[in-house]
Amino acid sequence: MKKIEILGLGCPRCVKTEEIVREAVKDLGFVEGEDYIIEKVKNPADIAEKGVLMTPGICINGKVVSSGKIPTKSQIQTWVLS
């Protein structure tokens, strides 16, 4: 199971990133709770602890894959499948 963390305080860019992540995994045919879980990390200390200085950020299974930008759906799918 993939653990996908959305790092951000809830700004519009962070909300959009979460929407794209959810669409990307759903388009892959993944089922939430079986194939992946999504957690929102809003605590600035927790975000900084992961080394992310600009939000939105995305961590997959503990690895930061994106920071400071809204990724495309295909980028997210590549990260999830790797």
Which residues sit in consecutive blocks of at least 5 with pLDDT less than 50?
A: none
Structural class: alpha+beta
Q: Gyration radius, to the nearest Å?
A: 12 Å
What is the number of helical segments per DSSP (H or I, 4+ residues)? 3
Q: Could you say what the CATH topology is called? A: Glutaredoxin
Strand content: 25-35%
Average of the residue pLDDT scores:
96
Query: What is the helix content?
Result: 25-40%
- Counted up, domains total 1
Question: What is the top-level CATH class?
Answer: Alpha Beta
How would you describe the overall organization of this protein?
- The structure is a single chain.
- This protein has about 80 residues and is α+β, with helices and mostly antiparallel strands.
- The protein has one domain: Glutaredoxin, CATH 3.40.30.10.
- Helices cover about 40% and strands about 25% of the residues.
- It has three helices and four strands; from the N terminus they run βαβαββα.
- It has helices at about 10-25, 45-50, 75-80, and strands at about 1-5, 35-40, 55-60, 65.
- A four-stranded mixed beta sheet has the order 2-1-3-4.
- It is globular.
- The two termini are about 15 Å apart.
